[in-house]
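Entry for magnesium ion complex. Fields follow.
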Amino acid sequence: MTESNEQSGVTVVIPCRDEAGALPGILSAIPVGYRVIVVDNGSTDDTAAVARSAGAIVVPESVPGYGSAVHAGIRAAGTPIVAVLDGDGSMDPRELPALVAELASDVDMVVGRRRPVDARTWPWHARLGNILVAARLRSRYRLPVHDVAAMRVAHRERLLALGPLHPRSGYPLALLVAAAGAGWRLIERDITYRPRTHGVSKVSGSLRGTLRAAKDFWSVR
Ligand SMILES: Nc1nc2c(ncn2[C@@H]2O[C@H](COP(=O)(O)OP(=O)(O)O)[C@@H](O)[C@H]2O)c(=O)[nH]1
Ligand SMILES: [Mg+2]
């Protein structure tokens, strides 16, 4: 990241809980001109210090959960465009400019469709859950998606206008359902999906985690 982080009009929001190991690799791959906000809530490792030392802005969030963290980051972003990706090294920030390039006044959000690099990247239970949820988003909400927008780029004002969504891991689905309700136009593009580089999964890395996420998803219907 360089001094001229303002010029792109893009802020990358990275929700993190205990991602000190993965963050340096992610932050060194942030495209030139992009600002970075790391939202830290409940980390017990030095996620915040690592983020700051790499030049990111750290926003604390007291309400636990992925959704609360993302919403806090969007609120704190000072640019018209917000990008969101995970902080575990599973997604490549270098793929963001291609998504940003497709965002336009008549395109409300550009979402990434994760393409795993190998079979171990995505636990079967999480992948199965994802396929079922995406099928429902296509059939019930007419959204042109095959994934739950884990990496996404959107207009900040339009995101905030949707209001606060789900505080935990139901957030991505709640966002897509709210987007459908608001008549948003979405574009989906393939993104690379790798195994997390460090640390442990907080959501779908375990069957128990996937079932908890499924319960959160179910509450969004
Ligand atoms: N701030 C914050 N980030 C979280 C929380 N839960 C998950 N995350 C972050 O959300 C991203 C996705 O979580 P992850 O554990 O990779 O879920 P998985 O990919 O489904 O296994 C990672 O960057 C996590 O650090 C939370 O409660 N608070
Ligand atoms: Mg992950």
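NOTE: The longest strand covers residues 109-116.
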